[in-house]
Specification:
79 residues, alpha+beta, five-stranded mixed beta sheet, 15% helix
């Protein structure tokens, strides 16, 4: 059994109103988080969404540099 990997990017929005959570694993490709805990809420959502997959979550600064990385090993579930 192979376990696929989800890759998420958390990037600050150009309009400075929160962050975008971006991934091919998301149904619409991108989610906006604008509340005070935007980054931690985006990380928690990505971890929840990928609970059965391995996941890499990268947080970027405004210059496009990776400032933090989170990795999660998914739970293997038998059919």
């Amino acid at each position: 059994m192979t376990n696929s990997q989800h890759v998420y990017q958390i990037q600050p929005r150009k309009d400075h109103c929160g962050v975008d959570l971006i991934s091919d694993a998301l149904p619409f490709g991108r989610l906006l988080y604008g509340e005070p805990n935007a980054i931690s809420n985006a990380i928690n959502y990505a971890k929840f969404r990928s609970r059965s997959h391995d996941a890499v979550i990268r947080i970027y600064d405004e210059a496009g540099n990776v400032i933090e990385t989170h990795e999660q090993v998914g739970e293997l579930r038998e059919p």
